[in-house]
Amino acid sequence: MNKKSKVEYWDELIATAPNGLPYAYSWYLDIVTSGRWRGLFDQETRTAMPIPYGSLSFSFRQMLKRRKWSRRWVVQPLFCQQLGLFGKQFTDEELFHDFFKDFMSGVRYVDSYCLNEANKKLPLAVALYRMKIRERSNYVLPLRKTYKGLVKDYSKSHRRALEKSKDLIFEEDVLPLADFLAQHRRSVGRRAGLSLRAYLRWEKLIQAVRDRGLGRLLSVRTASGEVAAAAFILQSHGRLIYQGGYAVAEKKALNPMHALFDVLIRRHAGSRLLLDFEGSDIPSIAEFFRRFGAKERKYWMVYRW
pLDDT tens across 81-125, in order? Predict the structure, then answer.
């Protein structure tokens, strides 16, 4: 196959895999890894596994400290929650072993690699390579019920919070992307340690997602026109994925993030979509998601230092 047909084959496999996720599309990986990734795939079983590699500037001090700088090392990129194996055959332990054998070829250092929620058998395979496993949490909310039914699953505190935010105005794709990223950096990024390079990459990713008709920039404003909160939502593989957002500090008393998620839930209630909160392992954030009725789904991160 030529290079183009390989890319098309890969993306078609990710698009149709029962456990497919947008993070594994070739164009998505090209952006979040700056092109530093390779794909393993088996045509017979139609199974694929992307492997992202770190750059020299990503963790140079760590590399020198561990004296593994002469080998390639695997790093889970930002804006890419889950990777792992994508396909249909997840009961074949030999298949897992074969993929991880290729995964570890030429790799001695795995900073982090997150499997997807369907990869339940993989810990048995990674044990062969003396890799460690850390359990991580994601929260998802099926939107099959009517809005009335979904609201019943909100916590009492969330329902009370929405009373304070009922006068906020919801908007879609009105807030300029530059304004969203600038305010996100002020509200979240500095505290979270996100670099300017990370924001430049996220901007490129959001533009690529929107160019493909897969992304929406949501915001809520006060009656006077001030932005109170905003979030970027990626829609793919039957999921509404919350990729990041913020509430303006001075407007938090209005509970704007409660309002934003509530409108999103209301608009898609009764659908087959899944609201994917993309985390979190931070207890306070996880509790915020749970109070919308979201359910926890576990996935594994593997590493070897």
Answer: 999 999 986 666 778 888 888 888 878 789 999 999 998 876 566
Backbone angles phi, psi at 281, to 5 degrees: -90, -5
Report the b/e string of 75-87 with b at 16+ CB within 10 A: bbbebbbbbbbbb
Quickly tell me which residue has 């991160």 as its tokens. Answer: 301
Task: Report d(CA 258, CA 164) in Å as an integer.
Answer: 10
DSSP sequence for 146-166: -HHHHHHTS-HHHHHHHHHTT
- Top CATH class of 140-297 equals alpha beta
- As given in the structure block, the two tokens for residue 270 are 């009764």
Cβ-Cβ contacts under 8 Å for 177 (sequence gap 6 or more): 203, 206, 207, 217
Query: What letter would DSSP give residue 135?
Result: E
What are the two backbone dihedrals, phi and then psi, of residue 52, each rounded to the nearest 5 degrees?
Answer: -90, 140
**Other CB atoms closer than 10 Å to residue 130's CB: what's the count?**
7
For residues 218 and 233, the answer to whether their CB atoms sit within 8 Å is: yes
- Secondary structure letter of residue 21 according to DSSP: -
Scan for tokens 């359990």, then name that residue: 135
Over residues 213-245, the pLDDT tens digits come to 999 999 999 999 999 999 999 999 999 999 999
Whether 140 and 275 have beta carbons less than 8 Å apart is answered as yes
Fill in the amino acid letter for 279: G
> Helix (H, G, I), strand (E, B), or coil: what is residue 194?
coil
User: Are the beta carbons of 36 and 62 closer than 8 angstroms?
Assistant: no
Residue 150 — pLDDT band, cuts 50, 70, 90?
A: very high
Separate counts of helices (H) and strands (E) for the chain: 12, 11
Give the domain ranges of the chain.
3-130, 140-297
Which among 232, 245, 246, 229 is positioned nearest to 165, based on CA atoms? 229
Torsions phi, psi of 9, nearest 5?
-65, -45
Torsion angle, alpha carbons of 26, 28, 31, 35, to 10: -20
